Amino acid sequence: MSTAARTTWLRELIRKPFFWGVIAIFALLALNVIKDPNYLALSVNPVNGNLVGNVVDILRASAPILMIAVGMSLVIATGGIDLSVGSVMAVSGAVAMVFMKDAGQSGSVGVALGAIGLALLVSAILGAINGVLVAYIGLQPFISTLIMMLAGRGIAKVITEGQNTSATNDPFRWIANGFVIGLPVVFLFAIIIVIIVGLVVRRSALGLMIEAIGINPKASRMAGIKPTGLLLTVYILSAVLAGVAGIMSVGTVMTVDVSRTGYQMELDAILAVVIGGTSLAGGKFSIGGAVVGALLIATLDKTIVFLGISSSATPAFKAIVIVVLCLLQSDRVRGWFVQRRKPPMLRTPSLPAEPKKQEVSA
Amino acid sequence: MTEPLPIVEMRDISIEFPGVKALDGVDFRLFQGEVHALMGENGAGKSTLIKALTGVYKIDGGSIIVAGQERQFHGTRDAQSAGVSTVYQEVNLVTNLSIGENVMLGHEIRGTFGVNWRATHAAATDALAKLGLEYLDTHKPLSTLSIAMQQLVAISRAMAVKAKVLILDEPTSSLDAAEVEGLFAVMRTLRDQGVAILFVSHFLDQIYAISDRLTILRNGRYEGEYLTRDLDRHALISKMIGKDLGALSSLGGNRRVEQRDYDAEAPLLAAKGLGRQGSIEPTDLDIHTGEVVGFAGLLGSGRTELARLLYGADRAGEGELTLHGKRVDLKNPADGLGKRIAFSTENRRDEGIVADLTVRENMILAIQAERGWARPIPRKEQDELVEKYITALNVRPADPNRLIKNLSGGNQQKVLLGRWLATKPELLILDEPTRGIDVGAKAEIQEAVAQLAEDGVSVVFISSELEEVVRLSERIVVLKDHQKIGEIVNGPGVTAQQIVDVIAAHGVAAAAESDIIDAEADVEPSNDPDTAHTPASAEEES
Amino acid sequence: MTIVQNPQAPQTGAADAESGFAKLMSRVKRVIASNPSVLPTVAAIVIFIGMVVYGEVAYGRIVQYNTLSNLFINNAHLIILAVAMTFVILTGGIDLSVGSVIALSSVAGVMLANAGWDPMVVIVLMILIGTAMGLASGILIQYFNVQPFIATLAMMFLGRGLAALLSTQPERLADDSPILWLGEQFKVIDGEKVNDVVITPGVIIALLVVLIAFFVLHRTRTGRTVYAIGGSESSSALMGLAVPRTKVLVYVISGTLSGVAAVVYTSRLGIAQNITGIGWELDAIAATVIGGTLLTGGYGYVLGSVVGALVLGLMNVLITRDGGIPPEMTTIITGGILLIFVLLQRAVTSKRRT
Questions:
Q1: In chain B, what residues touch C234 (CB-CB under 8 Å)?
Q2: Which InterPro entries match (chain C) (predicted)?
C-alpha cells in the first residue's frame, strides 16, 4: 500500500514541469563537487555566526532573479511579456543610490526606507506606463516593454547623470549583505515576498483570472472578465518586483552601475519562467516553478564562474537553453516524440495566425 | 452512356480529426459548365470537403480525381496549379496591396528589370474585364473596394490563373441583394465559358436561383446528389436536417402551457429596433419572465447575431433594449452578466470553455468575474456550488478537478450550463446547447431548460434542430437572411413543418409571406428561367 | 529572385532618379493620391527637412558638405540595419538580434583578420555569420512556431554571449589592414577648408544595399510576397504564395545585412568589442517605424526607413551641437519618438478599421 502510494507520488513529482529544473540544479552542483570536493561545504563564521559557503552565495545571488521571475511568470501567464525588468532594476537602483547620496552619509533607517519607497514608486510608475500601453491602448506587449527596456536604461543614466553612483547607508546595505539566524537577509526577504505574492495570487481569484485570460481571451471575455484592470495590475506588479530586485542588486556593492545593473536580466526572468514550466504562449503558471528556475539560473551563473568561463558568455548558454525549451514546447517537436500518427491537418500552423493578430490589436 | 466525364470526382472521401470523423465515405462529382451547390447544416462537413479538395486537409481515405487524373494536393498552391481555385467567405486577398496586384500576386509578369508593372496591371485589367470589371483602377488599394467588389476581384484572381474549377465558399454571406445579383451574373458568364463552379451558401433562395445540381451532406456523410429543379425546398430542408416530412409533421408542440396573455404582462426584456450593421437588421422582440423563446432559422439567419446583442457580446449599433422597463446599454459581456443575463455560446471551444482549467474553475469563472478578483469565492462555497451543478446536470466524470478539455462535448456543455446557472440569471440565452453531443446529454439539457422555465427563468433557446425548438419553446421567433421574419405562438398542432414553411416561403413569393401554412406555392416560382438555364453537359444526368 | 541574380538593379534606380524633377513631382502626387500609405513616409521626409532647417537656424553649419557627408558616413551601418529591419517588419515580424549579430560578427572578423586571414575571406565570413544567425531565427519562427520576438531575443543573447566568449576586450584591427579601406574617406568635391563632400566605400555599400532592397521589394515576386504576408499571412497562404520560404528568407536577409553592417561599422572604427551595438535594435526599429513602416506589417517603404535612419542620425548631431541635452537622454528620446510613432500608427489603423 505504502509503496504504491509512494510510486504515484513519485510519478506525480516527475510530471511536475520543474522537476527537471531540480534535477539540473543537482547536476550542476555535482559538477562543481567533482571539480572541488569541498564545494558544498558550509562553515560558520566564528565572529558573527553567519553561514559561509558556495551554497549561501548561490542563495544570495538568486534573490533578485526570484523577484523578476515571479513578476515575469504572471505577465507571461496573461500572454504578454515584460522585457523591461532589467532596466527597471537599473532605474530603481539609481533612484535609491542618488537619494541616499543626496541625503548625506547618515546611516539612518529613515533614509534607507525613503530610498526604498521612492525606488519602488518610480518602478511602479514605469510598470503602470507599460500596463496602460498594453491594456488600454492595445500595443503589443513586447514593443511597449522593449521601448521601456531601452529608454529605462537612459532614464537611469539621466538620474545618475551617467556616473556610477555610490552611497553609504548601513541599513540599506544590510538588506543585501546582512544575515539573520545565519542566513542571508536578502534571500529571506526574497522568499517572504515570493510567499506573499504566491498567497495573494492563489488565495484571491487573481491567479485564476490571469490564467483564464492567457488560455482563452475570448472565452474569458464571454464569461464577464474585464482584462484591462488585471493586465495593468500584472505589469505594475512585475515592475515593482523588478524594483525590489534592483534594490537587492545595488545593495550588495552600494553602487549603481547604470549600464551593468540588471543588464540582460530579462533573459534570466524569461528563462526562469520557461524552466518552471510556464508556456510562453500564456496560460497556466507556476510560481514554484519560477522559484526553481531562478535557483537554477543562480547555480548556473556561479558554476560558470567557478569553472573559469567568462561570465559575459553566460547569456550564450542561457539562450541555447531557451531555444531548446522553446523547441520542446513546439507542437512539431512534440509530434516527433508522440507515436508517429500522421497529422490530420497539413497547414494548421499558418492558418490561425490571423485571428490571433486581430485579438491582440482589439 | 453518353455521360460526360466529371472534371472533379471525389470517391469515398474520409477525414478524421482527433476524436471526430469529419467526413465518412463522401462521394462528390463536379462537371464542366455547371453550378453545383454543396448543401448541409453546420458541421455537415461542407468546408472539410472543400479543404480536402484544395489540399488544405489531407484525406485519410478515398481518392480525388481531377480531369481524369488521380491527384494528391499538398496545399493551395498544388490545387491552383491543377486548375482548382477557391474564393472564401472571408475574402482571401490582402487589403494593403493594389487591386491589380491582388489579381496577379504570384503571377506577375516579369521583364528584364524584375516585375513589369505596366504589363502586370494590363493583365489584371484583362482578367477583370472578363467579369465586366474593366472600369476598376487597378492601381487603387484593394481596401477602397466594398466586400462585394473584393469578392469579385477574388474571382478574377481565380480566373486569371486559368481555373477550370472555381469553388465559392459562402461568397454571398455579407452581400446585399443587388451585389448578389451581380455575383450571379458573373457566375453565369463563367459557367457558360465552361468553368465548373462549386457553390456553398446558406441562403436557399440563392441555391434555387443559381445552381443546376446539388449534393447534400449530413453529419459528415453523403446524403445524395440531385438536380436542383427536381428537389423542392421542403425535401431539401428535410434532407439537410435529416428528418423526412412525415416525421416532422407528427412532432407537435410538447409544452402544454396555458396560453398567456402577453399583452397584459410587462416583458422582462424588450428590444425595439435592435440591430447591428452587417449582422442583424433592426428587430423587435419581447421576452417575458419564465418564458422559453425559441429562435429558429438556418445557420447564418441572424439567430446567433441577435442573441449576442441581447447579452452584450456584441454592442448593438441601433435600437434600444429595455430590461424591467429600464433602458440598458450593454457594452460588453460583463455588462450583460451584471444585468443577470447569461449567454452560452454556440462556439464552445473558442468562446466557451477555458480548456486548460478544471471543471471547478470553469464553473465558477462567471460568478468570480462578477465579484472581482479581490473577493475570491471561498473554497467551501466553490465545492458546494460545483457539487450541486455536477449532480443536478449529471456531469460525468463527477470530478471537479479534472481539466475540462478532457471531458466529452456533452459534459463540457453541461459544465458551461452550470457556469451560467450559478450566476442565477433572469434570462438565459442558450445558443446551440445540444449540438454535437450524444443523445443522453441532449435529453438532460432539454430537461434542465424546461425545469428552469418552471422556476421562473426566461430562456432563449437556439437550435438547428427544429423539433427541439418546437418541443421546448412557448414562442418561436423565425429568422432568415439576418432579419426576423415571423413569430409563432407554440401550442398543440404547431409543428417543425410550419417553421420550415415559413422559412421556405419567405421572400420567394410576396404572397407567401402572409400565408405561412400553405407553402406549396414556392415550388413553382423556383422553376423560373434562372434555374431552367442548365448547361447541356449536366442536362443528360438523371 | 535573389539579390545576386540582378546586377542591373542599381542602374534601374539611377535611371529613375535621372528622370526630370517635374516628372517626379507629378509621379509623387499620383502615388500619394492612389496610395495613402505613403503618407507616413512623406511625413518622415518632411520631419527630416524640418530638422535640417531647424538645425541650420538654431546652430548653423548643418547644410554644408562635410556635415551631410558625415551624416551618411556615421550612419551607414544604421541605414543598412534599417533596411534589414524593414524586410522583417513588413511581414509583421521583428528582429531583436541585429545589434548582437554585429557584435559577434565584428569581434570574430577582427580576430580572424589579426590572425592573418585573407581580408576577403574575413569579410565573407562576417557576412555569413549574420546569415547563419538569421537562418536560425527564421527556422525557429516558421517551423517551430516560436514567436518572432522570443526567437530573435534568444539570438540576441546568443550573439552577445558568443562574442564575449571570443573576447571581452576591445579588438583593434591592424593599422595596415585592408579592411580599413572600406572606411577610408575619399574627397568627391573639394570645398573650402574642411568643407568637402567625402564618401567612404562603406557609404556606397549602404546605398547599394538600399537600391537592391528597393528592387527586391518592389520588382520581384518575393518582395511582393513580403508585403502580402504583412497584409494577411493566412490569405497569402490561401492565395498560393510561398509563405514559409519567404518568412524564413526575411530573417536570413536581416541577418545577412546585419553582417554587412558589421563590416561597414568595423571598417570605419577599426575596433570591435562584445558590447558593440547594444540598443541598436531599438535604433533600427525606430528608423523603420519613423520611416512609415507599420509595426503590424504590410505597409512601408525601404526608402522611408533610410530617411528614418537619417532623422535619428541628425538628432544625434543636433543633441551634440546643442550641448544642453545630456547625451544620456538619447535613448530616452529615441524611445519616446518610437513610442509616439507607434501610437500614431495605432490611431491611424484603428480609424481605418472603422
A1: 92
A2: ABC_transp_permease (IPR001851)
- According to the model, what pLDDT value does residue B430 have? 93
Q: Do B141 and C36 touch (CB under 8 A)?
A: yes
CA dist B528 and C234 (Å) reads 40
In chain B, what is the straight-line distance between the N-terminal and C-terminal CA atoms, in Å? 12
Q: How many domains does chain C have?
A: 1
User: Which of A147, A264, A267, A334 is most worth mutating to test chain C (most C CB atoms within 10 A of its CB)?
Assistant: A147
Residues of B contacting chain C (CB within 8 angstroms): 75-77, 79-81, 86, 88, 91-98, 101, 105-106, 108, 110, 112-115, 137, 139-141, 143, 157, 161
Site of grid cell 469565492: B377
Contacts 24+ apart (CB under 8 A), C40-45: C40/C291, C40/C292, C40/C299, C40/C300, C40/C304, C40/C345, C40/C348, C41/C291, C41/C292, C41/C300, C41/C301, C41/C303, C41/C304, C41/C307, C42/C292, C43/C292, C44/C290, C44/C291, C44/C292, C44/C304, C44/C307, C44/C308, C44/C311, C45/C307
pLDDT at site C351: 56
Q: How far apart are CA A13 and CA A15, in angstroms?
A: 5
Q: Is A199 domain-assigned? A: yes
Distance in Å from the first CA to the final CA of chain C:
37
Q: How many CA atoms lie within 13 A of B35 on its CB side?
A: 29
**Hey, what domains does chain B have and what are their CATH numbers?**
1-83+163-232+523-542 (3.40.50.300), 93-160 (no CATH), 341-424 (3.40.50.300)
What integer pLDDT is reported at residue A68 of this predicted model? 96
Q: What is the pLDDT of residues B72-92, one digit of tens each?
A: 888 788 888 888 888 887 778
Which H or E run contains B50?
A: helix B46-53
Q: Which residues of B touch A281 (CB under 8 A)?
A: none
pLDDT beneath 70: ranges in chain C: 1-20, 28, 30-37, 350-354
pLDDT tens-digit profile of B32-73? 999 999 988 766 788 888 888 888 888 888 889 888 888 888
Q: Among B86, B97, B106, whose Cβ lies nearest the Cβ of C221?
A: B106
Q: What is the pLDDT of residue B509?
A: 42
Where are any strands of DSSP class E within B302-363? 318-323, 326-328, 341-344
Q: pLDDT for C49-91, tens place per residue?
A: 999 999 889 888 888 888 889 999 999 999 999 999 999 999 9
Asked if the structure places residue C30 within a domain, the reply is no
Across B18-22, average pLDDT: 71
C237 touches chain B (CB under 8 A): yes
B387 vs chain C: nearest CA distance in angstroms?
A: 40
- Chain C residues touching A314 at Cβ < 8 A: 161
Q: Look at C239 and B93 and tell me if their CB atoms are within 8 Å.
A: yes
B468 DSSP 8-state letter: H
Using DSSP bridges, classify how beta strands B84-87 and B165-169 pair: parallel, antiparallel or unpaired.
Answer: parallel
Mean pLDDT of chain B: 81
Are the beta carbons of A150 and C330 separated by less than 8 Å? no
Q: List chains touching A (3+ CB pairs under 8 A).
A: B, C
Instruction: Kindly determine whether residue C244 and residue A350, on different chains, have CB atoms separated by under 8 Å.
Output: yes
- The residue segments making up the domain with residue C250 are 44-322+330-341
What is the grid cell recorded at B146? 466594398
Picking from A226, A344, A346, the nearest residue to B18 by CB comes out as A344
For chain A, the domain total comes to 1
DSSP state of B347: -
CATH value at residue C336 = 1.10.3470
| Domain CATH code at residue A334 | 1.10.3470
Q: For residue A91, give the nearest of A128, A120, A134 by alpha carbon.
A: A120
Q: Number of CB pairs < 8 Å for A and B? A: 101
